[in-house]
Structure formats: structure tokens, C-alpha cells
Design brief:
heterodimer; A: alpha+beta; 7 helices; 18 strands; about 30% helix; B: about 190 residues; about 75% helix
């Protein structure tokens, strides 16, 4: 326990910092005071934490929170532009190019593949009213004979699935299968593995005996080569944020971010090897002005960004 | 450029200072980069036009995130203690929600009663100033005028109040575990 005078100093700082006259200079002085002696930072922490608990008790004694309403699984995003039936098939058929056929597709003659280039996004509509939005650099395969089915070969897509409890929608990926009866969710498939985030309704990963059910606000990650599914919380409002130019991360390696940026911008973004272990949590807002975007990223990620003929490279 | 981007500009210009603050504030528990990133994320939703001291505001917001993190770490520890005691059945069961239940309400009220009792042991004017500012949220300036004293004299009263609350909380930390566990067991017994 710190000595009495240090505790008194810590309390004095706590009070001064809360006064309306507190400015940036005062906080900088306070930083220097904490740096002067680890006992200072310890004493302040005890004061701030005790006071924080008082705040909690003041807030907790007055109200009882009401539970949030359950997720609506019957969502019909009717306001969105929907393409339907034949129109969709025509688009899909025109996109079947030998270039995009993966080995798996060659074995399934009924499959059609749709791909986007980096920097390009596309919305496709299925005959049943469901919709899939493809991020850049994404390849998806659809089965002409099974309309409630899609296979995400690589990249990222948002699925807005029309409710039909009799016919669940199946999404296959290289790292497992998803089963869904009417919801909105984002799927990202990369060399690192699979990432699924649910915005509305619920989705089952690996339906069957090992099923993991994801409800709205949940995110699942499966690292390539492991069968372990890690579920975490995510703000449902940020799911599929790439559609609004917002990329959200929680503890993501910079290599993943570089890949997403390449996908969104259509310009290759690479990370120098010494940054490979660096991780990031937060939101990146895509600015179409690349120079401005990378200037911000330098600050945000604590890196340097260099532009060359090969695209952007992030270095230490 | 909007006001919000003004706040973002202040963040970017003062990032090193905020980072320095967090590093010493966290006392070895990480370098604060994640908190800075969370802070950056929140800036987009803030109306900067009402903020008088934007830089002090950013420090305060960073400090609040430090406290948020400490609070949730403590809740996690409490939940894990319950878990190991076998109170949550089934490995896929959702962890108990942190929302205040009726029992939590009682605990909070009990804690506040203790704070109240400690304040009653202080000089009357000290207790008055502390209650007014800290519990009722009256601005310091207004209390200074009401009591006919200077702002720094109000600060002195507040410091004495905080000292008493701190001592109470630290004393409670020693014996708080026992009643809380009983309380948790009480809920589970009701469910079974």
C-alpha cells in the first residue's frame, strides 16, 4: 500500500482532473506525475477504481435494465432493391467463365461461378428473394439445381436470406458449412480460415452433432487447419460494414487488414514481415482518396505506408 | 470539414501523448494501443461542438475506457469463480448477464448505505460538499457559491470525501467476497 501522502496526492489529482478547468496540459502533468514513481500510478488506480465503483452503485441503485428483445428471424428487407428470377439467372449465366472455375466446380456441372475483381462489389439476387452482396476479390458458386445453396470459394459476402423454415439455406466454405433459415450474416473465407458474423436472426455452423448456433451479435472464427470454432461478440450494426466502407476488427493481424484493403481498393496492399505479428482492433473507414486513407492508417496502425508501382506497403 | 473531424485531428496530433498516458496508466497491463483504437472508433459518433476542452475530453475518454476494461475484467473473474464452483451447467451455457438484477440492486443499495454512513462521520460541510458534487452532480462552481468558499476550498472538501470513500472500498475489498458468494448461491438455489 502506498504511503499516506502519495494517496493524498493521487486523490488531489483525481479531483483536479474532474474540475471544469482541467485541460490537456493538466493531463500531461498528471502523466508525468504517474511516470515519476510506479507507486503514484498504483495509488491513482486505487482511487479511480474506488470512485468508479461508487458511480456503478449510483447507477445500479436507481434502475433495473430491461432485457433486450429477441432477434427477429422473419426479417424481410423489403426496402432493398431486389432482382428476381430470370433476371438473376441471366446475369449468373453471363458470368460463367472458364477462368473462374475451381477444381470443385469442374466436378459439378450444375454449378455457376460469380467473381468480383478487387475494388469491385456486386449484388446478386436469388430466385427465392434472397440476396448476396459480394465484396471485391470474391468468388462464389451457385447451384442451378439447388437454389437454397451457395459455396463461398474465397473472399467475403453478406447473405440476406429470405425466411423459409422448410428449406434452410446452406452456405459451404472451405472450413465448414453454415445452415440458415432466414437472417443476415457476413462470411469471410481466406487462407487464414473462416469468419462468420451474424447481424440478424441465427445461423448454424456445421449443422449436425457438432453444430454451433450463432445468434445476432455473435461472430465465429475457424482457423484454417484446426476444427476449433471460436465464438465472440460483435456489434450487429458493424456486420458487413464493408458495404458502407467500414472495416471492423478485433485483434486482427495486419496481414488480414492488408488483404481486406486490397479487396476494397483494388490496389495491392502488403505488410513487411517485421509487422506480421502486429494486431489491430477498431474500425477503418475506407477513403477513396488513397493518399489520405494511408496517411490516416499510418497514425491509426502506428506504421509507415509507402506507395510504389506495386501498390502500398506497410512497414515499421 | 465537420466538427467531428476536428476531434479526430486533435486525436491524431496528440496520439503520442495519449499513448504515453495509457502506457503509464495501465501499469504494465498492455501498451494501450487497443484502447487508443477503441477511442478512435468512438470519435465518429461524437458531436465535438459541445466540447470545451477537446484534448482533456480525449484523455477523459481514454481513462473511461481503462476503467471499463478493469470493470469487465473483474466481472469476468467473478463469473469464472462461479463457473468453477459449478453454478453454470452445461459447457455451452451463456455466461450470466452483467445486467443488474433485483439482487444486484440490493447489493448496490447496501454499498451506498455504507458510503452514506462513512460520510456521516466526516465534518458536516465536507459531507455536504461531497454529496452535492459527487452524488447529486451539482457543478463545483455552484457549490462554491452556495457555501461561500473558493473552488480550491471545495476541492479540499472533495479530497477528504474521496479519502473516506477510498478507505471504505479498500476495507470492503477484504471481506466482500464472502457475502457476494452467498448472494450468488442464493440465486442458483432459487432456480433449481
Amino acid at each position: 500500500m502506498a504511503s499516506g501522502s502519495i494517496v493524498d496526492e493521487a486523490i488531489a489529482w483525481h479531483v483536479r482532473l474532474q474540475s471544469p478547468a482541467a485541460d490537456g496540459t493538466l493531463w500531461a502533468e498528471f502523466t508525468a506525475w504517474m511516470e515519476a514513481d510506479p507507486a503514484h500510478a498504483d495509488a491513482y488506480d486505487a482511487v479511480a477504481f474506488a470512485d468508479d465503483r461508487l458511480s456503478e452503485e449510483l447507477a445500479g441503485a436507481g434502475t433495473i435494465a430491461t432485457p433486450s428483445p429477441p432477434a427477429n428471424n422473419d426479417n424481410e428487407p423489403g426496402a432493398l432493391p431486389w432482382y428476381r428470377g430470370r433476371a438473376f439467372l441471366a446475369i449468373a449465366a453471363s458470368l460463367v467463365l472458364a477462368l473462374f472455375l475451381s477444381p470443385m466446380l469442374l466436378k459439378s456441372p450444375g454449378m455457376e461461378s460469380i467473381a468480383t475483381q478487387p475494388g469491385e462489389t456486386r449484388e446478386i439476387a436469388l430466385a427465392d428473394g434472397s440476396k448476396i452482396a459480394l465484396n471485391g476479390g470474391t468468388t462464389i458458386a451457385l447451384d442451378r439445381k439447388a437454389e437454397r445453396f451457395a459455396r463461398l470459394e474465397s473472399g467475403e459476402a453478406i447473405f440476406m436470406i429470405k425466411h423459409d423454415s422448410a428449406r434452410p439455406f446452406i452456405v459451404e466454405t472451405g472450413d465448414g458449412t453454415l445452415r440458415d433459415v432466414g437472417t443476415i450474416f457476413n462470411v469471410r473465407q481466406s487462407a487464414d480460415g473462416l469468419e462468420v458474423a451474424v447481424s440478424e436472426g441465427s445461423v448454424q455452423y456445421q449443422p449436425g452433432s457438432e453444430a454451433v448456433t450463432l445468434t445476432a451479435g455473435k461472430q465465429l472464427r475457424v482457423k484454417r487447419g484446426t476444427s476449433k470454432a471460436i465464438v465472440s461478440a460483435i456489434d450487429p450494426a458493424t456486420v458487413g460494414g464493408w458495404q458502407q466502407g467500414r472495416l471492423s476488427y478485433r485483434d486482427a493481424p495486419l496481414t488480414t487488414i492488408a488483404m481486406d484493403l486490397s479487396r476494397s481498393l483494388g490496389t495491392p496492399v502488403t505488410v513487411s514481415p517485421d509487422l506480421a505479428s502486429r494486431r489491430f482492433s477498431g474500425v477503418i473507414r475506407i477513403d477513396r482518396d488513397e493518399a489520405r486513407l494511408f496517411r490516416q492508417l499510418e497514425s491509426l496502425l502506428g506504421v509507415r505506408a509507402r506507395h510504389s508501382a506495386k501498390g502500398w506497403q506497410l512497414t515499421r | 470539414m465537420t466538427e467531428a473531424s476536428g476531434l479526430e485531428a486533435i486525436f491524431l496530433a496528440n496520439r503520442p501523448a495519449l499513448s504515453r498516458y495509457l502506457r503509464v496508466r495501465l501499469r504494465g497491463d498492455g501498451d494501450g494501443e487497443d484502447i487508443l483504437q477503441d477511442l478512435w472508433l468512438k470519435l465518429a459518433d461524437i458531436d465535438a461542438s459541445v466540447i470545451a476542452e477537446p484534448l482533456a475530453y480525449l484523455y477523459r475518454a481514454a481513462e473511461n475506457l481503462v476503467l471499463d476494461r478493469r470493470r469487465s475484467a473483474q466481472r469476468r473473474t467473478a463469473r469464472e469463480q462461479e463457473w468453477t464452483k459449478g453454478h453454470i451447467e452445461g459447457s455451452m451455457a451463456a455466461p450470466r448477464d452483467a445486467q443488474p438484477s433485483a439482487d444486484r440492486l440490493l447489493v448496490a443499495r447496501d454499498q451506498l448505505r455504507r458510503v452514506d454512513a462513512v460520510l456521516d462521520t466526516l465534518p458536516e460541510r465536507t459531507a455536504f460538499a461531497f454529496r452535492a458534487v459527487r452524488i447529486d452532480g451539482v457543478p463545483q462552481k455552484q457549490i462554491a457559491a452556495e457555501m461561500g468558499i473558493s473552488l480550491s476550498a471545495v476541492e479540499k472538501h472533495l479530497q477528504r470525501g474521496y479519502r473516506a470513500v477510498l478507505e471504505l472500498k479498500q476495507q470492503l475489498d477484504v471481506d466482500i467476497d464472502a457475502p457476494q458468494r452467498q448472494w450468488a448461491e442464493g440465486i442458483d438455489d432459487g432456480v433449481r
